[in-house]
Amino acid sequence: MKPFQRMLAVGGGAFSMMCAFLTTACATGGDSGKLVVWTFSDDTEAMVEMYEQAIGEDVIDVHTYPQDVFQTRLDGVLRTGTNAPDVVALEISFVKKYVEGGKLMSLDELGISERAKQELYGYTNDVGTASDGTMYAVSNQAAPGGFFYRRSMAEELWGDSSPEFVQQKLSSWDNFLAVAAELKEHGKKIVSNLNASEKVFLCERENGWVVDNTLQVDSCWDTYLNQIRTIQENGYCNETVEYGAGGGWYTDISGNEVFGYFLGAWGLNYHLKANAKGENGDSTNDWGVVQGPSPYYSGGTWFAGIGSSSKKDQIKSLLEYWMFDQDFLKAWAERTQDFVGNKIIVEAIKDSFADPFLQGQNHYALFAEIAESITAKNVTLYDAAIGSLFSAAAVDYAMGKTGTIADAYKQFRTNVSYAYSNIDVGL
């Protein structure tokens, strides 16, 4: 699955999710032995429907809650042990919290850990694995990211819009800023929002934000901070917010001013295609995709069984279908254009993708290469909260509200110390 915000780009997603919430808000727990699945996405509902069609039985109750209340509800039932679900969806921003929380059912107990290690992409397994090496959560999708760019702008600028050529132009962060300067000379912006590349740098880190209760600030963040200050000072981006209110980030997709977007593989279908036509223009079939300066992933949803559940066989059957069933995964890839997380399936289908929206480019083959080169061993349960504090400090630095990188780090470390008294922040 994708970050929750992407649903806002799809007209009916948020509405259907809210309707589901209204009809199930008071309904928790099973019904006549049915497996209970909690989620924040209507994609999960579709996956359940496909499973029930495959086995020919109505065996699952799905409860869909808005993401802003999802963790609160889940924490409550896990704390009390009452009316807990059997299977739960976990978004990338909070999956580690539950993987390390001691309330999930291990994949060893379900008997699927070894198969997961063999067939699923390594980085997705990293996310679903606790610090003691036990696997608890798996994902049926991988979300390698790339830089989606406007071919017409590349043609205008360089006379060559091929992915091979554009990748050379964007092969390093120095090259990225050089391209930004070229684009400005032609009245264009390289990205829509200031912190567009932050997700890439998150994957460049050697360590997660916290190691042995000590805050880690990798040297790659110096590069990032210098980059976004340069972008801000030179007007290389529009002042939009990623997935943000006001719609500027989305309308830039259809316009003729912004060169590209850093997006996970899912962004093609759920952001670019969904917003290519708008009041600012029509960018349909004018896109290509490259890796960009560094391989990364963005977003994702993992699934796990709840440790207290008595329905181990049912949980195993469902997770095996979603993770390993060839017919399901092939159908899901065709239906959603999602990059599925099973390497065997990807290898079998990757050569069959040629999307007109990308002028015939095979994005699946590209993402297959990227997915093998990324790791998520640096993901920690602190990432969402501490990451937001760093983002705020970084934007303040880019805007000139703090004078030096050292000042930005001091602001960041101080705010982390306020949020987490147990962490040595290095002040």
Lateral arrangement of strands in the main beta sheet = 2-1-3-13
Classified in CATH, the superfamily of the largest domain is Periplasmic binding protein-like II
| Secondary structural class | alpha/beta
Mean pLDDT: 92
Explain what this protein looks like in three dimensions.
- The chain has 427 residues and is α/β, with parallel strands linked by helices.
- The protein has two domains: 4-142 and 298-364, D-Maltodextrin-Binding Protein, domain 2, CATH 3.40.190.10; 145-296 and 382-419, D-Maltodextrin-Binding Protein, domain 2 (3-Layer(aba) Sandwich), CATH 3.40.190.10.
- Helix content is 47%, strand content 12%.
- The protein contains 20 helices and 13 strands.
- The protein has helices at 11-24, 42-55, 67-80, 95-99, 107-110, 113-119, 122-127, 151-158, 163-169, 173-185, 198-204, 220-234, 248-254, 267-275, 312-324, 326-336, 343-349, 363-372, 383-398, 405-419, and strands at 35-39, 60-64, 87-91, 145-150, 191-193, 210-211, 214-215, 237-240, 260-264, 277-278, 281-282, 287-290, 301-305.
- A four-stranded mixed β-sheet has the order 2-1-3-13.
- A hairpin with a 2-residue loop joins strand 10 and strand 11.
- Helix 10 (173-185) packs parallel to helix 12 and helix 12 (220-234) crosses helix 19.
- The two termini are 38 Å apart.
